[in-house]
Amino acid sequence: MDAPTTMSADNGISGGGDGWFTPRNQPTAAPGAEQQTAEGSRLAALRPVLRTRTGNSPGPSTATEGDPSDEAGAPPGTQTDGEEVTPAEEMAAPDDETQLPARPEEIHPPEQTSQTPTSTPAQPQEVPDDTPSTGLRVPVQRFSPPQGATTPLGTNAPQFPGLSPRDQPPSPDAVRIRRTMAEVAPVAEKVTSYFYALLFVRHPDLRPMFPAAMDAQRDRLLRALLTAAEHIDNAPVLVSYLQNLGRGHRKYGTRAEHYPAVGECLIGALSKYASGIWDTETEAAWVRAYTTISQVMIDAAAADELRAPAWWYAEVVSHDLRTPDVAVVTVRPDQPYPFLAGQYTSLETPWWPRIWRHYSFASAPRSDGLLSFHVKAVPAGWVSNALVHRAHPGDVIRLGPPTGSMTVDHTTDSGLLCLGGGTGIAPIKALVEDVAEHGARRSVEVFYGARTDNDLYDIDTMLRLQQSHPWLSVRAIVDRQAHLQLPDAVREFGPWHEYDAYLSGPPGMIRSGVDTLRSIGIPSERIRHDSVEEIVLAQ
Predict the structure, then answer these.
(1) Which residues pair with 398 in a beta bridge?
(2) CA–CA dist 532, 488 (Å, integer)
């Protein structure tokens, strides 16, 4: 999932004062940090690179700066533009934010879209015929917040102490939530339309937070909310995921008071389309789940505000076109940008305001502070095409916070088995550099997959690393030559049962790669990859 809850300002009827979804703790702003929400801020008014901010201020964060829906449905991949997605793009993620691992059978390739946004003002959301008009409201429930509505994730005693969290039977709330999900599944498109219609009709000030063209990604926010709620019992994974989402949503200008309206519209949409099973207990379960989810995100954002900006400006300093559709883009952030090898970030260009996409860092942290990304331009890829074909040195982009859990565990000396497909080689290269910098002579086996020889755009770099480090082995797997998919090629080597596995590439490669690695004896807990498109949280 890419980005859950980040919507609407409270207008007095969503519970913002003392209603159901009111956060139990209001975040404390960092000293000197004022949240600016003036509408209309754009990258056209970029401040000079390397300009120093004063105090702890995260810089101007406006309601028009990002798309809250984009953080939840997009995979942490080297890129997600409707393009080839490789793990290393929010929930996903996400990512990272510790990314929520997806079961291989639940990973699906992203749908391509040919729609291109325009620079014209955002058009009003199409409202279903039965959507309440501006003067009408979803009935506000009359009861007070259910007991325990603000109970933090993971604080309830397990039903069976002898079982691991993964093996615990579902809680009553989880059962009701999953029953609701099954009920609305056949009409998911209608639920999505109704949810956004409620949100934009009742809270029109939220519309500028989303891109002008909603069709390609409008379901991401709702999908993320529903998926997180459905897995409310999976505290160990869900908390990390939600904390990363909360931190990542700062770049959109999201504030604590935005959450109640989203919860109200969520309840409104679900109660309408799950009316056959909707009752007081079901509603109370959803209220508890959403209140808990939003509180985790709010707390994480408040803590992050004390130590990091909401986003960074970065100037393009190098643009290396490796193939007609692949470029290595190197940027210089305006402030120190701490991250770990194997992580990724979200990126916005000045040509497509409010459209954020995720890209993996293509190197370990450098002493000069520069960051590199491998970008493949694909049809209908707004951001990827801009970065490959329009960006030049001197252009300024924006970066979200680093995120992702596909990092090296330096407390062990296990070998690393790395599978990188296409631009998914970017985070794999970063992992190799990270191992080298730590001085450990750990065996690292890299399988670099591509469709054709021309797609091995970074093979020379990988071979130079192999020459410099005797513990590194690099094997190129070209599909059209070997007639063999990258994951299957791994079977011919090994054994791998003492290795930690890392995968980065298109969703299909990740799915088949996880299956292959499990089948040859690598346990799931030693297989690392960041979430991909259409992520579903693992139980």
Answers:
(1) 313, 348
(2) 20
